[in-house]
What does this fold into?
Amino acid sequence: MSFFSKLFSKDKDKQETLDQGLQKTKESFFGKLARAVSGKDKVDDDVLDDLEEALVTSDVGVDTTLNIIRRIEARVARDKYVGTSELNTILREEIAALLQENELTTAKIEEKKPYVIMVVGVNGVGKTTTIGKLAHRFKSQGLKVVLGAADTFRAAAVEQIVIWGERVGVPVVKQQMGSDPASVAFDTLQSAIAQDADVVIIDTAGRLHNKKGLMDELTKIKRVMQKQVSDAPHDIMLVLDASTGQNAYEQAKQFTEAVDITSMAVTKLDGTAKGGVVIGISEQFKIPVRYIGLGEGMDDMQVFDAKNFVDTLFKK
It folds into this structure.
């Protein structure tokens, strides 16, 4: 098989994974959309009201839904007459435009060495699995990766990171349970620099007992890491579980108030009809989605492409 054939095959596999991963969301959303336009031939106030309900109940979120509706109203007013047959196209274009407004502003991985990612999120959202999949992704690209098990409050968290490190074949820096998380982060960067690593991924505690406690802890980790790498971390990534729907919004709200989140990874899209949270959370918090999780496999973590995500969502 030629290089280009392999490339095409990989792209095809990725698209099939995305198609399958969004299937439940598509079925739910289009069922609601079909009911919104049933028996109507033009986009009027009744259709917009029904569309608003369809978006809100698809976990797009109230604020984002109202923004989308305003955009569609402006299109209808400008174009004078818009048939319901055109609604899918307009909706797709406006949602894609919203998502593309939130572009990544973090440094590129090739611009920093080591590139340091601090991963945050509550327990149970797939944080450790996301770290493992990211490590696999970076290693597959020929990059040298080191993981830091700085969630020292849960023995299971350290064990899970170690298992992923063994599975992927990357080193994990850890200490005893109950150790100072900042100390683990410091040791991880020290080890990464000694090994000439390209990427460092630091796990952090998944508890969210109060914003001040979280802020103090993560601020300390950042401050200590900067003794090794002056501008670390280069990305503070929030991991959210799509299947939790509105709870994901509350988690995003809590974390963004406590920490300077620069990107998001949204997991478990394949098992839920609540994929609309990707649209709402990104637009509402003005934070780009960097990765989406579409399954249990090592390669089922994809770089988020707003246009392709929306095109796939609207593909019939």
Observations:
- The longest strand covers residues 235-241.
- Confidence is low (pLDDT under 50) at residues 1-9.
